[in-house]
C-alpha cells in the first residue's frame, strides 16, 4: 500500500490523510480476525562480555550533550552514541545490563588497549565526579600515561553505575592531543551528563502485556536490545537506514514534555519550555487509545553531513508507557513518517 511523505502539522488537530491512508485505518478497525504479530515483553538482559555493549535507545536513563562541531557517527550494533571530536579523537557512549562485567574488568581492558598493565581488582579506583541534581557519581579514569610515545593512543574513560545498568563514556585519541586539551573537553562533556529519574531502573517490566503491531511490508525485522519488544530496519537509497524500536516502561514514565525534550536533545535541539508548544506534537487516535506523535529534525547536519531526524509516539496503555521511535537520516525518516504513524496506531493488546 503506498504511503506519502508529508510535513508535520503546526497545530494540535488531527492531520489530514490520503484516501489510501483512511482506507488503511478502516481496515485496521474492521479486520478483527486478522492475525497480528504479537511481541512479548522483553526479559532482563544477560550480562555480556566487556566488549558487548547493549544497544538500547540512547539516553533512556542518561542524558548528555555533544558540542555543535562534533560529528555524529553511525553507532552500529553495540554503541548508544559515537562522535568524531575534531582534532582530538572519537568519543563513544555505551551501556551494559547489571554491572557490565565488573568495573575492574572494563578498566583493565582499556588499560590493555593502551599498553598499560592490568591492576588488581582492589586497586582499580577512579576519580568521582558528582552528577548535577543527583546523588550518583561518575568514576573518571585517565588512561593516558605521561610517558606514552608520541604516536601512541590514549584513553579517557568514565563509568556510571545505576541500579540495573552501567554506562561507559570513552574518549580515544592520540596521546599528545589528549594531553593538550582532552581532559578539559572530556570533563566538560561529563559535566553535562544527567540521570533521568523516570527510568533509573531502565529495565522493562516482565509483566508487560503482549503488544500486537502491524508493520509496513518493506520494514525488515532487526535484532533489538533487551529493552525492545520490537525492532525494525528501514532501508533507503544509497545504503541509508533508519532504526525503529518499541519499548515499554512501567507506569507513567515521565511527562510527555520530558520525553519529547529527551528526543530533542538527541538531535541537539533546545528543549521546549511548555507542554502547549505546537512543536510538542499532535494527539492521534490508535487501536489502543490516544497517542502523542512528534516529528523532530536536527537544525544542523549530524549524520555524515546530513540532518538527523526522530519520529516518536507515546502511548499509555495497560499500565505501561509505550515508546515508538524511528531515528535516522532526515530524508529517510521524512519519507516514512506516515508509515510510522500508522504503525504506532495499530498497536493493540491481548
Q: Beta-strand level of the residues, as a percent range? A: 25-35%
Structure annotation, total helices: 6
Helices and strands: which structural class? alpha+beta
The CATH class designation of the largest domain is Mainly Beta
In total, the number of strands is 19
Following the backbone from N to C, one meets helices and strands in this order, namely: HEEEEEHEEEEHEEEEEHEEEEHHE
Q: Strand order across the biggest sheet? A: 3-4-5-9-8-7-6
What does the overall shape look like?
A: globular
Radius of gyration: 21 Å
Mean pLDDT equals 78
CA(first)-CA(last) distance: 26 Å
CATH topology of the largest domain: Jelly Rolls
Largest sheet: 7 strands, antiparallel
What is the level-2 CATH architecture name of the largest domain? Sandwich
What is the count of structural domains?
2
Fraction in helix: 10-25%
Poorly predicted runs: 1-35, 38-60, 198-206
Explain the overall architecture.
With 350 residues, the chain is α+β, with helices and mostly antiparallel strands. The chain has two domains: 19-43 and 203-349, Jelly Rolls (Sandwich), CATH 2.60.120; 62-199, Mog1/PsbP, alpha/beta/alpha sandwich (Protein Transport Mog1p, Chain A, 3-Layer(aba) Sandwich), CATH 3.40.1000. It has helices spanning 19-30, 103-113, 175-191, 256-266, 330-335, 337-345; strands spanning 38-39, 62-63, 71-72, 81-85, 89-97, 127-130, 137-143, 153-161, 165-174, 194-195, 211-212, 220-221, 230-235, 241-250, 282-286, 289-303, 306-317, 320-329, 348-349. The strands form four sheets. It has a seven-stranded antiparallel sheet, sandwiched between helices. The protein is globular, with a radius of gyration of 21 Å.
Amino acid at each position: 500500500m503506498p504511503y506519502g511523505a508529508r510535513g508535520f502539522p503546526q497545530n494540535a488537530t488531527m492531520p489530514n490523510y490520503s484516501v489510501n491512508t483512511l482506507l488503511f485505518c478502516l481496515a485496521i478497525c474492521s479486520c478483527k480476525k486478522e492475525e497480528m504479530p504479537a511481541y512479548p515483553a522483553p526479559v532482563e538482559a544477560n550480562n555480556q562480555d566487556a566488549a558487548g555493549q547493549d544497544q538500547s535507545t540512547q539516553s533512556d536513563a542518561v542524558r548528555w550533550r555533544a558540542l555543535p562541531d562534533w560529528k555524529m557517527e553511525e553507532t552500529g550494533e553495540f554503541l548508544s552514541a559515537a562522535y568524531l571530536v575534531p582534532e582530538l579523537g572519537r568519543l563513544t557512549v555505551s551501556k551494559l545490563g547489571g554491572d557490565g562485567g565488573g568495573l575492574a574488568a572494563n578498566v583493565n581492558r582499556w588499560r590493555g588497549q593502551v599498553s598499560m598493565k592490568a591492576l588488581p581488582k582492589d586497586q582499580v579506583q577512579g576519580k568521582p565526579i558528582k552528577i548535577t541534581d543527583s546523588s550518583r557519581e561518575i568514576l573518571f579514569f585517565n588512561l593516558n600515561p605521561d610517558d606514552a610515545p608520541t604516536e601512541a593512543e590514549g584513553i579517557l574513560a568514565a563509568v556510571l553505575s545505576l541500579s540495573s545498568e552501567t554506562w561507559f563514556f570513552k574518549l580515544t585519541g592520540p596521546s599528545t592531543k589528549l594531553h593538550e586539551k582532552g581532559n578539559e573537553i572530556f570533563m566538560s562533556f561529563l559535566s553535562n551528563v544527567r540521570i533521568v529519574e523516570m527510568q533509573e531502573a531502565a529495565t522493562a517490566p516482565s509483566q508487560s502485556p503482549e503488544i500486537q503491531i502491524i508493520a509496513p511490508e518493506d520494514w525488515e525485522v532487526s535484532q533489538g536490545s533487551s529493552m525492545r519488544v520490537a525492532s525494525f530496519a528501514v532501508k533507503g537509497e544509497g545504503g541509508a537506514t533508519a532504526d525503529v524500536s518499541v519499548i515499554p516502561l512501567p507506569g507513567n514514565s515521565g511527562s510527555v514534555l520530558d520525553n519529547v525534550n529527551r528526543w530533542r536533545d538527541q538531535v541537539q535541539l533546545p528543549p521546549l519550555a511548555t507542554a502547549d508548544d505546537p512543536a510538542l506534537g499532535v494527539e492521534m487516535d490508535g487501536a489502543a487509545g490516544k497517542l502523542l506523535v512528534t516529528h523532530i529534525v536536527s537544525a544542523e547536519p549530524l549524520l555524515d553531513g546530513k540532518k538527523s531526524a526522530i519520529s516518536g509516539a507515546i502511548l499509555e496503555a495497560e499500565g505501561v508507557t509505550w515508546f515508538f521511535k524511528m531515528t535516522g537520516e532526515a530524508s529517510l525518516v521524512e519519507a516514512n513518517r506516515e508509515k510510522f504513524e500508522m504503525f504506532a496506531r495499530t498497536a493493540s493488546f491481548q
